[in-house]
Specification:
Helices cover 74% and strands 0% of the residues. It is mostly helical and 213 residues long. The longest helix has 26 residues.
Length: 213
């Protein structure tokens, strides 16, 4: 029997996704290659090997392409760490391990991280935003964290992540100790006791260390 199923919509969707990814990759390459000036749509289109009209069939502005690229990158980093983080139950464990792993994985991919930090792309609605705010809400509800406003706390800690990554990439004398201090301060900013902060640092260091052995 002949296959009468129309594959054209499926093929068209695959092509659309490939082109969208091509434009996002070109956006990242263009922005990370520039140091002193902000690229224009023409620069991204040239890098992608497409026309300006094709760009506009996928994104209505350069800003929307930058945000989409940032979400894709941020979600990729978060997806990388989920298998070794998401099974943890205690909020303080989830925060300390997630925070440390996100920093560590970011440093392993300098190009991707450079784009996220340079363009300040840590958007609401991303997986990082979803999981971090969920952990903070869980910690608040069970009494481990003192958080008046989950959204504000999430934004504050995303900013702390970016600052820590920038500092370690520039170079600090003892990166591991620096990240220890960042995890400790992150927990402390959530109202954790000094003892729980210490446990968070030790637990996250040991947990991440086991993954690399």
């Amino acid at each position: 029997m002949m296959d009468t199923f129309d594959h054209r919509p499926e093929v068209a969707e695959k092509r659309r996704l490939l082109m969208r990814t091509r434009i996002l990759d070109a956006t990242v390459r263009t922005f990370t290659a520039r140091v002193s000036s902000i690229p224009a749509i023409e620069d991204v289109a040239r890098e992608a090997g497409i026309s300006r009209g094709t760009f506009y069939r996928y994104f209505d502005s350069l800003d929307s392409a930058v945000v989409a690229a940032g979400v894709a990158m941020s979600d990729g980093l978060m997806t990388d760490i989920l298998p070794v983080y998401d099974f943890l139950k205690e909020p303080w464990q989830r925060f300390s391990v997630g925070f440390r792993l996100y920093l560590a994985r970011s440093l392993l991919d300098p190009k991707r991280t450079e784009f996220l930090i340079r363009m300040d792309v840590w958007p609401q609605g991303s997986l990082v935003d979803k999981y971090m705010s969920g952990d903070l809400r869980m910690g608040r509800d069970c009494g481990q964290f003192e958080v008046d406003n989950v959204e504000a706390a999430t934004d504050f800690l995303k900013g702390a992540s970016a600052g820590t990554i920038q500092a370690v990439r520039r170079g600090v004398p003892e990166p591991e100790s620096y990240i220890d201090a960042a995890v400790h301060m992150g927990l402390r900013s959530l109202g954790c006791t000094v003892e729980l902060c210490r446990k968070g640092v030790e637990f996250s260091r040991a947990h991440v260390g086991r993954l690399s052995t």
